[in-house]
Amino acid sequence: MSALPAHLLPTDGRFGAGPSKVRPEQVAALARLAEVGDGRTPLLGTSHRQQPVRSLVGSVRRGLLDLFDAPDGYEVVLGNGGSTAFWDVATFGLLEQKAQHCVFGEFSAKFAEVTRSAPFVQDPSVREAAPGSVALPEPEEGVDLYAWPHNETSTGAMAPVRRPKGDPGSLVVVDATSAAGGVAVDLAETDVYYFAPQKCFASDGGLWLALMSPTAIERAVDLKDSGTWIPASLDLVTAIEQSRQDQTYNTPALATLVMLDEQVRWILDNGGLAWADARTRESSGLVYDWAEDRAEATPFVREVEHRSQVVTTVDFADDVDAAAMAATLREHGVVDVEPYRKLGRNQLRIATFPAIEPDDVRALLACLDHLLDHR
Ligand SMILES: *Cc1c(COP(=O)(O)O)cnc(C)c1O
């Protein structure tokens, strides 16, 4: 493959779906909070039980309620371990007997596997759809928890967030790991909207956050009161109680919280979730329009309404080597556009999270044009 002319390159070459681009301003905030001297106490490297860090956690929690326009009584709960740990947290602390999972990619499959392998609940009901499409929840007798991803990051398919009608009392638990902060949502349609901060929130991994309805909190308390065994680090009621005091059960990564708070403030200052939603629509629209226009390329997700705003996937014709294009881009500092490893397609996956400049998406597409035109 040919080399890429420097003038075509994006100003920031990070297009990964997580970890994802961190804005320089977030890193500057870190440097500010690490400064010592002049009688000032830095925040980094100080106790998470003291006021400075608790204020930071409080700011994150308030900022998220504000950003998601949370209905009365919803709370922001957080703990360590990322979204993967939250699947265990939810299986111990939210699931009574039987879950229904919509599975249409790797992440949704992993949560289904967690409840399937748990010995203390029934096998889940699984509604499966081929990668690139979506499965939707259906009311079902005996199910007390409905689970699906807002955005299936492994395929770039986005599903609506809407309660299955006619099953009051059951919980709707949505994996919003890659959607939260970049896609509009009506939280009233969920009981638990959970995510990790390394995608739309442009921070580092390791933390899980959940916006929880009063019904979900009540379920967690009832389950714990029933006396069932819950490992301490996965105990949701402990996390709820700690979060109410702007703390976590065990030590969190402070840098992750600082960068998360910066990103929440940045989105709010720019106009909130509606602004972020419009920005990711613009960026993803550029990719899909480009893929529709180029003869060698096709959007992987056929249904337009299910094409993700935040993680785009583009298939290439057999005579194009997508992996070689990704490798050439990487040599030029444009990284992480490889497809999800287990999907095994001749594909590129390009994240269009809020931190990514639409103009950088334009530049990336110009680079792809160049590579395709100079094969
Ligand atoms: C990235 C991702 C996860 C895994 O998040 P971790 O924080 O690495 O555990 C889960 N679900 C979705 C939809 C994701 O995009």
UniProtKB/TrEMBL annotation:
Residues 143-334 form the Aminotransferase class V domain. Its EC number is 2.6.1.52. The keyword Magnesium does not apply. Its cofactor is pyridoxal 5'-phosphate. One of its GO terms (molecular function) is alanine-glyoxylate transaminase activity. One of its GO terms (biological process) is glycine biosynthetic process, by transamination of glyoxylate. It is an enzyme of class 2 (transferase). Keywords: Amino-acid biosynthesis, Aminotransferase, Cytoplasm, Pyridoxal phosphate, Pyridoxine biosynthesis, Serine biosynthesis, Transferase. It catalyses: 4-(phosphooxy)-L-threonine + 2-oxoglutarate = (R)-3-hydroxy-2-oxo-4-phosphooxybutanoate + L-glutamate; O-phospho-L-serine + 2-oxoglutarate = 3-phosphooxypyruvate + L-glutamate. Pathway: Amino-acid biosynthesis; L-serine biosynthesis; L-serine from 3-phospho-D-glycerate: step 2/3. Catalyzes the reversible conversion of 3-phosphohydroxypyruvate to phosphoserine and of 3-hydroxy-2-oxo-4-phosphonooxybutanoate to phosphohydroxythreonine. NCBIfam families: serC_3 (TIGR01366). Belongs to the class-V pyridoxal-phosphate-dependent aminotransferase family. SerC subfamily. This is phosphoserine transaminase. It comes from Marihabitans asiaticum.
